[in-house]
Structure formats: structure tokens, C-alpha cells
Amino acid sequence: MSDLTEGLDRALSDIPNTTLGVAVSGGGDSVALLHMLAARGGDLRAVTVDHGLRAESAEEAAQVATLCDQLGVPHRVLKWEGWDKSGNLQDAARQARLRLISAWADAENITHVALGHTLDDQAETVLLRLARGSGVDGLSGMAARRTVGRLTWVRPLLHARRDELRAYLKAQNIAWADDPSNDDPKYDRIKARQALALLADLGITIDGLVATADRMQDARTALEAATLTLAEACVEITDAGEVQLNMATFNAAPNELRYRLLSATLKWISGAPYRPRFDSLRGMLARIGDQSGQTLHGCVIRSHSGNIIVRREPARVATPCPIASVWDHRWVVTEHGRETAKTIAALGEEGLRECANWRETGHAREVLLASPAVWADGLLVAAPLAGMANGWAIGLKYGKKGLHKSLMTR
To answer: How confident is the model at residue 180 (pLDDT cuts 50, 70, 90)?
Structure first.
């Protein structure tokens, strides 16, 4: 048992419980994680998402609440009620869970949330991604840490086997709930779990798949460093946030680096959490010299004067947000003018008509339509990128190094 807790302590050595939350479903893995974290002391907080998909879910959430009360750990139950019964249920539930927990963590000033994924989960993930034809990134498995916005998701039990955690719970007479879907072969993860038992005779084992994930992670780190070097050699970012890639330098690079740099560019500009599908990306690159413009992943991609130019697609920009917030994932107000303003929103056609000198900025009309502007009750106050500053300034949240930051995906 000491190996379990020692591994957990190493994984969380720089994270105090005062800024740590833990997601607890009521299953064995997360209940074991809760107990180990509670034993560390400090101001740990726990959260459970009740998806409402099974009759027992509310009771299981209540059982977690009771357990947390016994451990002296503050606990919240968050209910998901937003599914419209369309699309992939498991993916919708996962996205809702991440969204709800992120909002809870933000309200509680929690910087890290621990998840109960195990060594077995890692092996199943690698097997599933192998079946889907994943490359290096997919086969590197789940990250021990992954930062999204202001929250870092932590998996401190990736060293632990599922059976070890059950033994830990039994030794301390701790009860947990078993979700019946964990034995339902209609789910791909359960198929993978069952397949692993059969593949062992071929030498395809949990430990072997995890070792592959570790090696793929090393390869991923090397590829990310090489992509960063390529970005430094061929990328220019304008004040309006468009990315220009020198086509000669870009095309001379290996395909893997080209795909990585372009997908990171699309993600950075659009704010999308995932990269575009590989086939879509490859097809777009194959057509780049033959088409005047393409759209992909919320961006417009053009070739001009020896550059590949990637811009925000005007029709896909974010909705208006408060003046102190980050708009469209990248833009923040850096200087305030005298006139009162309430929101940041896209300049759009209506706003651009009010910017008499926009052509003098040197920015393309398409870029300015998607650019950030300052508004008050539907009236344009300022459009700094379109030559109408009025004392206001708007810039990229992380400056022009924001793209480089996004290249390091973990």
C-alpha cells in the first residue's frame, strides 16, 4: 500500500490540498483517491457530477456526500441537465462533466482537480487510440497533467492498478459503488478492457501498452520541440492576430512538423480544444496553392505572396463578453479610454463602416471584420485595430508568443 501513497505524493508534491479539488464519482478508483488525498490533510474539496442518466445516480452522489462529511471534506453535487438526446452520449457527458467541474473550481479558487484514472485506464486508452489509427500524440496516452485555461487536471494514480486500489479499499473496509455500465460491452472502453484479457497471450499487456505510451510521450516531446523551432523560423504574427507562415520554409519541413504547426495555429486562433481531423488538415494543405481561400476549424486559410495566411473566420467569432474578460479566447483590453464601454465584441460589417481610416492600417478587410472592438449598448466606442482607438488598446492575451505556448500541448 505504501507504493500507492508514495506514488501519489510524488505526483502531487508541488500541489497543496489548499488549492486542490478531487472529482469523485463514487466508484472504487475515485473513492480510493479521495481517501488518500484526505489523509494528506489541508483544505481539500470534492465534487461529484450527477449526470442523471441512471436511477441510482442521485443515491450514489448522496453516498459520496456522506463519505466526504465523515472525512471532513467539503463536497458539492453538480447536476447535468443539458443533454438534448442527440449525438454521442458518452462524449456529451464527458464534456459536460469537464465544464461543470471547471466552473466549480473557478468559483472555489481551485487551481488543480485530481482525477482517479489508473494504469489500467491508460492501457485501455492506448488500445482504443491504436484501433482508431492515432499517431504519436494519441499513443502517448493520457497526460499526468493537462492545463485548460486556468485549471490543471491531474491524474496522480496513473502508477496504480485498479485491483490495487480495490485491495486498498477492502483493507480499510471502505465501500464504493460499481457502475453497471462498467460491464456493458456496448461501450468501446469496456470492449478494450475485455480485449486486453485475450491479448495477453500475444504479449500485449497492460504494462506493455503503458510502456509504449511512455515512449510515445518522449517522442511527442521531441516533436513539439522541433515544431517550435520550425515556428520560430517561419511564423510571423500580425497585430491583428493573423498568422503568416513562410511557405518555402514551411514546405521544406517534414510533414509531421507541418501538420503539427498548422493544427496548433488553427487551435490558437479558434480557441478550439482539439486539433482538426487529420484528413481535413491534410486535404486543406494539398489544396492550399489551388484555392483562393478555405475554411477549417473556425479559421480562413489563404495563400498570398509566398505565405500561408491563417485568420479568424468572421462568422465563427465568439459572442460579446464583459470588458474585463478575454474575448474570443485571445483578446484583452490593455488600455482604457475615457468613454465608458461595457463589452468586447467583433467589429463586424456595421462597426467597420464607422472606421473611416481602416484601409490605412494595412490590415485586410476580412481580418478587421473578426477583430475585437469596444461597445456600449450597441454603439461602437473604439476599434483599435481598425484605426479608431479613442484611447483604447486591445492586444493578444499572451502576446505573439501565445502560439508558441500552444505548441507545447501538455
So the answer is: low
Q: What's the pTM value of the predicted model, to 2 decimals?
A: 0.84
Q: What is the pLDDT of residue 403?
A: 86
Task: State the DSSP string of 2-41.
Answer: HHHHHHHHHHTTT--GGGEEEE--SSHHHHHHHHHHHTT-
Tell which of 314, 342, 376 closes a domain: 314
Among candidate residues 208, 242, 205, 198, the one with its CA nearest the CA of residue 331:
242
Percent pLDDT > 70 in the chain is 94
The answer to whether 337 and 304 are in contact (CB under 8 A) is: no
Q: Parallel, antiparallel, or unpaired for β 45-50 and 151-154? A: unpaired
- Residue range(s) defining the domain that contains residue 285: 221-314
Instruction: Looking at the structure, tell me whether residues 61 and 157 fall in a common domain.
Output: yes
Go through 128-143 and write b for each residue having 16 or more CB atoms within 10 A of its CB, e for each that does not. bbeeeebbbbbbbbbe
Residue 54 and residue 187 in one domain: yes
